[in-house]
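Re-running the complex after MR caught last week's input typo. The corrected sequence lines follow. Everything else is unchanged.
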Amino acid sequence: MTPTPEIPGPTDDFRFRVHATDGAARTGAITMPRGTIRTPAFMPVGTAATVKAMYPEQVRALGADVVLGNTYHLMLRPGAERMARLGGLHRFMRWDGPILTDSGGFQVMSLSSLRKLDEQGVTFQSHIDGTRHHMSPERSIEIQGLLGSDIQMQLDECVRLPAEPKAIESAMHLSLRWAERCRAAFGEQPGKALFGIVQGGDVPALRVESAKALVGLDLKGYAIGGLAVGEPQAVMLAMIEAVEPHLPAGKPRYLMGVGTPDDLMRSVARGIDMFDCVMPTRAGRHGLAYTRHGRVNLRNARHAEDTSTLDETSTCPAARDYSRAYLHHLVRSDEILGMMLLTWNNLAYYQDLMAGLRGAIAAGRLADFCDETRAGWARAEGART
Amino acid sequence: MTPTPEIPGPTDDFRFRVHATDGAARTGAITMPRGTIRTPAFMPVGTAATVKAMYPEQVRALGADVVLGNTYHLMLRPGAERMARLGGLHRFMRWDGPILTDSGGFQVMSLSSLRKLDEQGVTFQSHIDGTRHHMSPERSIEIQGLLGSDIQMQLDECVRLPAEPKAIESAMHLSLRWAERCRAAFGEQPGKALFGIVQGGDVPALRVESAKALVGLDLKGYAIGGLAVGEPQAVMLAMIEAVEPHLPAGKPRYLMGVGTPDDLMRSVARGIDMFDCVMPTRAGRHGLAYTRHGRVNLRNARHAEDTSTLDETSTCPAARDYSRAYLHHLVRSDEILGMMLLTWNNLAYYQDLMAGLRGAIAAGRLADFCDETRAGWARAEGART
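Corrected-run output:
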């Protein structure tokens, strides 16, 4: 059994070290001036400069090393230039660890109206107040810099699946040209990183072409984008398998917007190092709890007189100390405390899962760990997790 | 300067001791098996078995010795018999200190529909699901017992002001008859208390008649009800002044549903020992902060780039650590964290105010303390507190 290495401290430059592998899976650490990200890592989503319904100290205490900020939301409110005047996103939201920001492109597509996309970039109207904005690759990098982001993402065009191969190819090529422009705009920033995003929809050959071209840009990390947008899990996993051999072993790999606990385990087994997803926080606001025993819908009447807790063995007070009957009552009553407790529980479960995966990879027993975890889910109320 | 006495520990029976007085104001302690309530006390409102947007540990840590539960809400959801099966309200909401419950009467009047009131009690329809319920004085005491309440309130009829003296008198007399029935239903419960409620609207003679008759029932505490329902503050204070000489010095006095920080100070100076009010929690969910410098509306655009905190000298992290610019952003974005932080700040301010009042009474400098506190408010953005 391989001993788990010491957690390395922050470094002046952005670095990634793999400490152990188990099949395609790896565990290691990304280090940078603001701290260390233990990988595989799950990044809680702090859309509008807050991981919803959580104090920042709680997020940190659960073991999150990095949070994600959404460039689209933050550029509209409070605004990128205002954020810079206020001292940047870290100070604003009281998170002193690393922050990753997306490019804003995905949410321009999904949330704003009157989108007009061309070679130059994308013009859109704010979903908040209808104001008109333009986002180019250069402006996306400028905004992420104003926010003070540690890991910045290239602007890309993300195609909804299913889509015609021609449309997927065209978007992938545009994303590559934008990656080059983002790289030029980002320049050299010691201690920070720009990640490229592999596109190509559900077409393996396009995914491979995208990965190879991005690797030619010698970026500090590579994301896989445009997945978890409604396609079957098998398609998502096939795309990871197609891309992974073409990504350098010494750079972190980030699967964007994924996913369920099962998605995380299967993706880690295929070589992914980083994830973000709104699932644990959003589900927590809708009465759903992730537990060792599977997913639990607290809205269900079966919990009305259940004095058991979500998980008496958890170190998270939300899982350990509150009865399901009480959580059921809070959810049915639309009480804020219900959202607070279930979000807390869910993020604790996700972070514990990642810690378990890191330990299992270090110990060379990832497959057993995943089997045991899935067997635990089967003991729940029958809900698939 | 009188030294502040030690805080007494819990006692088998319900007891009240005054440790010091300053004019009509008193400071002391109510002791009972579940703990000690330092008076004057502010009781955070935990309507539906939760002080909204707060973990119970936070409420306790701010210095709250007792919380209030709303019988009307809890009898409808989760239900009184169900609560008893679940082990009572303390265990349900994870609050092991004293709990005071109202009788349910006030919210039957203000929230339910199809109310029909007669000598026997009140019939009404739930505002949640339209189910029909009956509440008699006996049933109110039974429900409060099923909840496990430590301090229970008599059922009363509360008249909206302004009202005709005849209507006020009739409601006051009905409330007295119900007080007797509640007393009989409550019986002898060592360690617990039943409080009577002085009614009589804005008519001093009716208030005095009500107080005298209730004192004749030899209850363990006396509340003043039916105030803070829209009348001017001067009327409320005049009613306290009319009633106070007729209440026994050795029993706690509770002013129901009050109030602003200024209301609390002026009522304490007139001999009130206990308060409850939704103001700090409700205001916190609507972007309003109570501070040493007065009331601050965080929604106001003037705070958009204000990096100062609400109160850098506070021991409450919500007041001390987060910039007004960030709070403004959270409030404008309808983020749950904004409600969490402002509720926390407001309850901290209220509890700090009560601690200040207790210390000032013990030191015989209540008037100076109130003058200094009001002078502090004048430094705020001009908002009256």
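None of the earlier attempt is carried over here. Chain A touches chain B at residues 48-50, 52-55, 77-78, 82, 85-87, 92-94, 285, 304-305, 307, 317, 321-323, 325-326, 329-330, 332-333, 335-337, 339-340 (CB under 8 Å). Chain A has two domains: 15-276, 284-384.
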